[in-house]
Design a protein that fits this description.
- About 30% of the residues lie in helices and about 30% in strands.
- The chain contains two helices and five strands; from the N terminus they run βββββαα.
- The chain has a five-stranded antiparallel beta sheet.
- A hairpin with a 2-residue loop joins β3 and β4.
- The protein is globular.
């Protein structure tokens, strides 16, 4: 599963040919959440409140890039790295 960004101990990844709807995986310590790109809602799992707030802030800034990476992964092409939160 390609890692597309890392910031503040949070790892953002996407699976190759993952199931719909378009989403990404956010991992922080022992926590993992699947976040839908279109709505930024949690599909499954959970993150601590502060980590979730950082992930949602990052995702709202990079939604178009996330959709582009989703399309790359669906076609088994490597996604591009996305800048972390400053």
């Amino acid at each position: 599963m390609p890692t597309i960004s890392v910031f503040y101990g949070i790892v953002i990844q996407m699976f190759w040919r993952d199931h719909e709807p378009p989403h990404f995986h956010a991992m922080y310590a022992e926590h993992e959440a699947l976040i839908e790109i279109g709505t930024l809602s949690i599909l499954r799992g959970s993150l601590p409140p502060r980590a979730l707030a950082l992930v949602l802030e990052w995702a709202s800034r990079h939604r178009q890039e996330l959709l582009e990476d989703w399309n790359e992964c669906r076609q088994l092409r490597p996604p591009k790295r996305i800048a972390p939160l400053p």
